[in-house]
Amino acid sequence: MILMSLQGFSFSFFPLQVNDTVGTLAQGRYFNTNTMIGVILGTGTNACYVEQADAVPKWKGPIPASGQMVKRTSCFPIFLQK
Predict the structure, then answer these.
(1) Degrees (nearest 5) of the Cα angle 18, 66, 73?
(2) Residue 75: predicted pLDDT
(3) pLDDT digits over 12-51, tens only?
(4) Domain annotation covers residue 42
(5) Do the domain assignments include residue 7?
(6) Beta strands at 37-41 and 45-52: parallel, antiparallel or unpaired
(7) Is 9 contained in some domain?
(8) Quick check: is 20 in a domain?
(9) Is 78 helix (H, G, I), strand (E, B) or coil?
(10) What are phi and psi of 19, to 5 degrees?
(11) Mind listing the pLDDT tens digit for each residue in 4-21?
């Protein structure tokens, strides 16, 4: 970054922490606005998806300008023993 600054490039940083599935969805939508889900498969299964904001009953704030929200879900593996 310092070398690029010396070459005349300017930078603005906005620190942001997001869930891994939300980051996956955001990255997908950056390249293709039709992307609708982000999924991480590991020791658990995590996913998020794009939902119409008026279909989210728990949301009490103003509706986003896009009319859409990201909903996040998590599933943890259940190990059954005999």
Answers:
(1) 40
(2) 73
(3) 777 777 788 898 999 999 999 999 999 988 777 889 999 9
(4) yes
(5) no
(6) antiparallel
(7) no
(8) yes
(9) coil
(10) -65, 150
(11) 667 777 777 777 777 888
CB–CB of 77/44 below 8 Å?
yes
Structure tokens at 29: 């939508």
What is the largest distance, in Å, between two alpha-carbon atoms of the chain?
A: 66
Return the structure tokens found at 68.
């859409």
Q: Say if pTM beats, i.e. exceeds, 0.90.
A: no
Q: For the chain, how many structural domains are there in total?
A: 1
**Contact status, residue 18 vs residue 26, Cβ threshold 8 Å:** yes
User: Is the CB of residue 22 less than 8 Å from the CB of residue 72?
Assistant: yes
Q: Is 2 left (phi over 0), alpha (psi -120 to 50) or beta?
A: alpha
What is the residue range of 47's domain? 14-75
**Helix/strand/coil for 19:** coil
